[in-house]
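Researcher: Re-running this chain for the archive, since the previous output was lost when a drive failed. Same request as before.
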Amino acid sequence: MLTEDLRQQFISVVGQKWFLDSPNELHAYSYDATPLLQSIPDAVIVPGSVQEVAAVLRMANEHRIPVIARGSGTNLAGGAIPVQGGIVLNMNRFNQIYEIDEKNLTATLGPGVITADLHTAVEAVGLFYPPDPGSMRISTVGGNVAQGAGGMRGLKYGVTKDYVMGLEYVLPTGEVLRSGGKNVKDVAGYDLTRLLVGSEGTLGVITEITVKLLPFPATKRTLVVYCRNLVDAARIVERIIAARIIPATIEFLDQATMKVVDDFAKLGLPLDMASMLLIEQDGVEAQVVQDIEKIADIARQTGAAEVRMAATMEEGAKLLAARRSALSALSRLRPTTILEDATVPRARLAEMVEEIERVARKYNLQICTFGHAGDGNLHPTCMTDERDHEEIERVERAFEEIFHAAIRFGGTITGEHGVGMAKSRYLHLKVGEGAIELMERLKAAFDPNNILNPGKVFAKRDRRRIVVRQS
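Model: Regenerated structure tokens:
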């Protein structure tokens, strides 16, 4: 609990309007998009300038008050939950695009800018910001940077970390620092920009971001491939890449996901198929046509049951929009939907999907799988009911087996969602205890009093019971 004196000090910095502590307001910031996790903050502060951020952090650091920076709250690993109470620092007033630099192909913006709004703004001048997380119409760029977000175009274009060129950020001491900038080449000292990307709000509060832009692709073509088994789908992906073709997108949906998405989006998918691949290529038209034709030939030669070309760019966009609706469609089935995130090398994709199906049968669970087949990033998604504690126990044991399988196949416990609270107990499987100790020392160097998003990444816990901290 904040004392009345501290409460007034924070109000003096941001104003009464931007200091929120009514029960309804605190409840709204007690959870993110991760099921089964909740904790009530002591206050929510909505700063409007870097000076206000610095002042809030200085006071919080002096009084050892936890601070959790937050955007839209779309986090899927419990990263935005104030598990130890304290202050939620809502950064959504930093929602301006300050500059689109067409000469240097960069954009500079606040962390509160919605990702899709950045896409719209840069595309209006013929430029392209490729990172496209599934939550892009809701999530903020600051949240994408903090989590190291991925997306459907990661195979060809890379992910958020590949586009962040510079940051302004604030340490718990209130010191405002900058790293990187508009320079294409810059090896002056340690790369603190890359260190902060994906640090999940544990090292500093980001207040400004400079990202790299590309020319907007001239055209796009979309291909849909249906397979009667999982092995053929995985083999098609492998052979496309072996043929030295890098599509913009290769998305995978298993049969269970296809059925739900088709019911949701009314696409008329052939539901007797075991899986489908949704493949998009973009670029110069002649090259795109050549690539798509070659991909279609590879698919047919590798056992595809059916190959369909989208007749128009609009039809292709509709198919991709339907893929983006997978989580929404699955969420209609049962009260609780747990979307997870595991990545394996492409060559192990079929084995991983088969392992997920085996685990689902073992624990008598409904798990649908979709994801970014081109980069091996799968999203096994379990439809369950958080009120059924026995079933939730089975869900947790199932995902534990899935994460162990990903590591066994040479993969990782998270490709794009982050560690947060939900996966901290599995982090050692990927990086080892020695690396965790090194990360903890880095954390202590930035944040010696451990006020920034405490209880995340390193703390070992699970979701087997709903965590509720009352104010």
